[in-house]
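Morning!

As promised:
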Amino acid sequence: DAKTTQPNSMESNEEEPVHLPCNHSTISGTDYIHWYRQLPSQGPEYVIHGLTSNVNNRMASLAIAEDRKSSTLILHRATLRDAAVYYCILSRTGAGSYQLTFGKGTKLSVIP
Amino acid sequence: GAVVSQHPSWVICKSGTSVKIECRSLDFQATTMFWYRQFPKQSLMLMATSNEGSKATYEQGVEKDKFLINHASLTLSTLTVTSAHPEDSSFYICSASRLPTNEKLFFGSGTQLSVL
């Protein structure tokens, strides 16, 4: 799988937007960009994913660079419940199933 | 949303005993489930891919005779840690993808295994 690079940690004030960056310079044309987050002592939770266009859902927005070599997960208003480790992952999907390879992720701390 | 149930949430066992962890997809069918292991302050490491009705595919370095995986139905996969030792103590997490789309994985809540 192509590799992603994320900062080890970030801090944000509560109720402010958070931009979590991810570099994936070796991404291929068929790789999807996925974001998952993991709260302490829990399994990961799906956040968002995309291929080329920016994506929005109720949890977050995903901004994908035009060359697809980087992307940014945007949390519009950080809450204390958003404190977690955020993983940026590339995967290939097809007719069959697929697997995800987790990197170290970014630990997001939210300051009240 | 789809739910993956993992049981038990935590287990403590004596060295040498075997422990079985269950992973169920509650409201969807999953032909493939994945098993991960996570040590403290580390990321998730894929152990094996569990395929319904066939043998699991193990990642390099994972002992198939120690970590037995059974995926007997479209909603249940089990991981059995045989002859557990303290070094097997870890957080085990399963995940599944929903048919027909494979766009995202749903994860169980994890099982904390402590081997004394």
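The two ends of chain A are 37 Å apart (CA to CA).

Hope this helps with the figure draft.
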